[in-house]
Please model this.
Amino acid sequence: MFDKSRRRFVHGPATSAPISRRRFVQGVATTAAAAAGVRLAGAGALAALGAPSTLRAAPADDGGRVLHGPEIDLSIAELPINLTGVRRVATAVNGGVPGPLLRWREGDDVVVRVTNRLSAPTSIHWHGVIVPADMDGVPGVSFKGIAPGETFAYRFRAKQSGTYWYHSHSRFQEQIGLYGPLLITPRNGERHAADREHVILLSDWTDIDPEHLYRTLKVRSGYFNFGRRTVSDFVSDARARGLSNTLSERRMWGEMRMDPTDLADVSAYAYTFLMNGVTPSGNWTGLFERGERVRLRIINGSSMTYFDVRIPGLKMSVVAADGQDVEPVSVDEFRIGAAEVYDVIVEPKEERAYAIFAQSVDRSGYAVGTLAPKSGMKAEVPSLDARPLLTMTDMAMGMEGAAPAALHSPIVDSIAAQPESRLDDPGVGLRDDDRRALTYADLHTIGGPLDSREPGREIVLHLTGHMARFVWSFDGQKFSEAEPLRFRHGERLTLVLVNDSMMLHPIHLHGMWGEIYTPEGQFLARKHTITVQPGQRLAYRVTADALGTWAFHCHLLYHMEAGMFREVIVEDAS
Amino acid sequence: MSAATSAVLVAAALASSAAPPQPMGPMSPRAMADMMQMDDARPFATLSFDQLEARDTHSGTAAVWDLEGWYGGDYNKVRLRSEGERLDGVTSDASVELLWDCIVARWWSLQLGARHDLGDGPGRTWAALGIEGTAPYGIATQATVYIGEEGRTSARLKLEYDLYLTQRWILQPKVELNVYSSADPERRLGAGLSDAEIGIRMRYEFRREFAPYVGLDWLRLAGSTSELRRAVGSSASDLQFVAGLKFWF
Model:
């Protein structure tokens, strides 16, 4: 799944040539050989035998980038890296970005020994994997972190199956390379048959020191927005929609002092988007044979980026969300937030290359790779869509009277007065095109909820922030100002998230699943990371079956660091 | 799955969970934040030269600056502001302000501090009380009242706006008004509105933090200030060509 040429690429020599803008976005060109992926020995046989011995990797040489459990040793160290023509230092797992693919089997008693060869403390969190509280890998919450030179042994049983990932939970290490894919093979074989599979991990690389990037956001939050509305936009809007309509629309945004182009805090101005660690010009390629059913396990391992993913010419059948099998749903496109995971099956019928195109939500850049019958092929890369604007829907406009008093805070810049459930809304930029985009209403996790009890209580949390001041919070309180949330051990409760801000937030509760329900009480899907759109009110149910202290946060890394984080304590009722 | 079955399953799952409830034991929030390396309250600092320019004035080419910096967290900051003009190597008119800045509303902060005036005439020191923030339509606003020695009071209003012609060409209109309660002939200031300055600057952001500009600045000396300054050769109205650099760290 990962090839040696990419490793050479990672270690590639620095160049002294000046970097053009194009080169920055596209990355340094390299000849990336194709990944054959894992060819599955007959889906029927697999389902029947259900053992990983029925998988044969082709080619067998995976360059050490796939590690099979249950016992695995990982080493975290600095790695010189050159993705854009500039030499930088990544924090890497076993000498690569992303880290190796870890493969476990459902039911394995896993031991992962992680050695820290950095000069700073580190950690690894197993994202979406249900583990005991002291194995969850959040320094200060689950354990002390892994000190420089120290080895920490994670030990737990892999009780689930599916596509997951792992990443550092220490400061900004995740931004500069400390992440990798994780695959737990189901004991009884895959439910959705496929002939071949590829893991596709999307991420956002920056040459900017993440500490400096964070400081830039705190000092000038709009720094990375190069999609502002200009005078000529005004003129063309006035021509298209009339002057008075345009003026009143501008007046509305002006009075709110908000910007409808605020789609992403960090754009391709700072980011080079990667597919399996490869830049767009590197053209990561996954192979297929015509007529095969190819399963793509797509993980968004980025720090700040929402991607809209599509493969022009192919329908994608979504078969799993966040590692959990769903009723297959056929789409042209899906939006994937930081830390979300979707497995799709595609059936390329033609002997040609297909582009796997993942454009950022602000349309400032993209990650792209190729699905092809043989290496060296490249499909036409679609052009970026026009940059969308936030709308009235995203604002959930109305009177703000009903909001809790705590939200009337100088660190909260907007309150959604009339938030709506909108589970069938694909989101800003995906509403008006002719492509069928996935929504949460399309997801139906097979087998129903884990716990069908009615929730005993409801906790409402507002997702709040101040864009200009770059302060992010729950209920208008930053992590440092807030008390932990307390769940009673064993209870079933509803978490209602109301997004008062104008940004998308992928919210992740550690240690426990979130089960999304419609407002009518119909179960939809089980997820570990749940995107709440601007102006949306989204309810999901949680069974507090995991004693201990857990992290609960927005998975946009700089939002989390800026305060959008809470401790959750699951304790006995007494 | 019935509710009863699922309750049994949950109970079984709970019974089998042997996780330590508080793996870390009791811990102060400070210690925890340190271990997490997650500090949402840490202070930052920045210094911005909004204007550093040459002005083609009546009396020759003047060097003019307008800068603002701050140090602090999300709620409280120490703010430094300075503006002024140097002509022929001599500071003709300048002020420096040091303010405590506390956010009090969604778009506004309250400021309290001191201002010192330098340049021609005796120095003056003022206590300062003001607001700074973003008015509707994104108009950056500073309004400050000053209380000086001998019962003098004064006020200063500054407004500016960024109009994006493209993502890098930005047109910035700016207005500044100064008002004095009583005349200060030693500093050639009359009572009432002393001066109004209306500028327009077009900058090109090579980087967000580095933007050269050119512009026009119309300086109008009002009433008695105009008369006091006519004596030293200033005209009541001066349209000045400016060229400079906006930069920040």
